[in-house]
Amino acid sequence: MAGVQLQSKHVLGLDGMPREDIQLILDTAVSFREILDRPIKKVPPLQGKTIANMFFESSTRTRLSFELAERRLSADVLGFQSLGSSVSKGETLKDTARNIEAMKVDMVVIRHSASGAPHYLAQVIQGSVINAGDGSHEHPTQALLDMYTLREKFGKLEGLRICIVGDISHSRVALSNIYGLTAMGAKVSVCGPATMIPKEIERLNVQVFHRIDEVIEHVDALNVLRIQLERDAGRLFPSIREYHQYYGITKQRLDKATTPITIMHPGPINRDVELSADVADSEHSLILQQVLNGVAIRMAVLYLLSARN
Ligand code: CP
To answer: Cα Rg for the chain, rounded, in angstroms?
Structure first.
């Protein structure tokens, strides 16, 4: 296991996270990924530690992945979901978090629909805070598991050509991937309709494309984003059928590439909207590998923060 420390007490985002810290998390996750292949997958480093998972927004992958990572490291786990909690009686985020912390919790994992909620929490509680996705801001552990999966597949991140496809404007996955991948020396581009690409995104060292067929000739991997219909994404293009026609990743499109293109997606997938079902299930798709690697990445983050404290 690597012997150096993370510079920050929290993992709130990849914006400004030093390259060495990203490298440390990815390298530490390799050991934990190996543990996940063992018959007995439990190890003791977080024995005696208590971690609260505060989920104020829906989640399948991230919530279960954090919970599994915590249990694999032998931590005690407190699950909190806003539905059914005293949040419905008007309790504030600060009061909810401080009450949970009063029960001697060491770390808090938080997902919230408000951008900046984890950063606020980090100011009002003593323990470490991990951002499990805040609004349309950042989703750092998703980007770390994406980077881990790319490094596992290609053996490096430096110089790798990655295009993030879809609604970049509203995507916390896109922003964290842009910060993380550019810090690690990858060549990052984005592709989508103009309504879904933030103005001046080039300032983050990314190239902008609006035609997916043009992108396919120039990339090693596509990270395809979910069309967030629950966040009114439908207003940003004429119809789902039209989005699929112009931006959907299909086998016919990928067959035009001279070399096979790796497909990633953070999930959940809208099959036959942002990518066709046969592409999602093809041998070029790393989607389930991303989910598996997510447990190892979260084990690494929890382990390193706990070691630091
Ligand atoms: N990738 C991701 O964040 O999925 P969930 O919303 O299911 O956690």
So the answer is: 19
